Amino acid sequence: MQKRGLLFYFNIYRKILAQDLKSKMSYRADFIISTIGMIFTNISGFISFWIIFKNFPSIKGWGYYEMLFLYGFSLIALTPVQCFFDNNWNLRNHVYSGDFIKYCFRPINIFFYYMSEVFDIKGLGQFVFGSLVLGYAWNNINLGISITIIIKLIISLITASLFMIAIMNLAASTCFWLLNSGYIMVMVFRFKDYAKYPATIFNSGFKFIFTFIIPIAFIAYYPSLVFLRPDDIPVLTWLSPLIGILFFYISYLVWMKGAKSYSGTGS
Amino acid sequence: MNTRKYLTLTRAGMIEALQFKGAIFSIIIGNLVYLIMIYFLWKAIFASVDTTTVNGMTFEDTMIYLVLASALFYFMEMYLVWEMGRDIQSGKIILDIIKPMKYPIFKFFQLSGNFIMFFFITFLPTFIVVYIVTYGAIHLDYNILFFLVSVLLGLLINYFIDFFIGTICLYTESIWGINIMKEVIVLLLSGATIPIVFFPEPLKTVVYYLPFQAIYNSPLRLLIDYSMPFSERIEILGIQLFWLIIMILVSGSFWKISLKRITINGG
User: Fold this and answer.
1) What is the ipTM of this complex?
2) Structural domain boundaries of chain A?
3) For residue range A115-169, what is the model confidence (pLDDT) as tens digits?
4) Which of A66, B99, B133, B189 is deepest in the core (most CB within 10 A)?
5) How many domains does chain B have?
6) Cβ pair A27:B47 closer than 8 A
């Protein structure tokens, strides 16, 4: 197979996306209700912080607005996995029923083609809500706006999103080897809810676990230090783009290995 | 009344629940991570104040409350909305409706095996661990009796709320959206994520007038608050009974009205 440029894949993605959106639009009520449901989840997270901070002044030196910063940041960082990689959730059914074989016969990258098939619009509601929370926190912490800080923000958001995508790729790819492994995805997906807390609340053992084994501390905590604790940025924060890319690449390799070893159901 | 047909359903559900060993395992691991998370989170939260009690709750009280709430959650969560939604979309629901048993009752006994299994798999071990770890914090007395009655009432209220939401699936195809909205509202307003005593004032009063607090908050208060006078205990049970009757009436009549408009798959 000859090498194809980014533009080629971009064009294909656009075409598949248009098809997907057209089919989604025929279920307009579902789209509206799902988006409202998504925003409900986010608002409830916001209310939880509000209630806690009505009773307590801070959490281990992290104030109300700093916690909201982490929350907003994590919501935005979790948008790509929701929007672009949602088809991971269907992988288990495709593999189980044998439908997955159709992806193996396309002359383009299987991973790319599989993920491009579904674009989950309700993730956009989360993106908007996350941006509002982040903006609100940003304003109250007086971070100011400059070109450098915006570039830093974009890079750290992209980095952070890679971690959750990689976690979900790995969780989904278990279904190539374990039958009906949906419960692993459900379990792992819940971990994202813990990304909004600063890793300093843990003792060193669990901090290690949430940094290197279940790397949810990279979804909001480490990247946010660039903005919230600029005088004391750990090495891991600087390394996080590299670790993120590496982690994503590993998850991609595992996913592809599973897809390549897939032998269908025989039908 | 012939109870054998009901007990057969219960038994089938128990056997079915045992088939999903992987799922049970992941629920236990997922719950463990959640408990570690809230332990460190609330420890950090309580470390930020000088007093040991906030709103009459110590760190230990809060932990006992939240740990048992999460254990209750796993045993009360029945995925009824998902099941009803899927059966409605596939048309399979008609096979259950024409059974010689009222559909809400049939569904309840079908799920009852699950309740019993998860009571023994998740709630009881958690309770025993909490009881031993915090030896002396939970008094075992006649309050156990109140607790068990209250759990049963809470379970039934939760069931009929779920049934009401599941019936909405007859009108809309958005199972995910409807379910997530319900889940968020119930979890937050029932006090399962943050104990209701921490809620700031206008919100607290409002929440006490809603049915959701009767699901988790009522049984947990009966179990933990040892000094509660007898009359108040009876009052809590009375309020639960009140909500149960309301929910049965509302869900039952909503179901009856909705049945008339079932048109799925020509059924």
Assistant:
1) 0.82
2) 6-260
3) 888 888 888 888 999 999 999 999 998 888 888 889 989 999 999 999 999 999 9
4) B189
5) 1
6) no
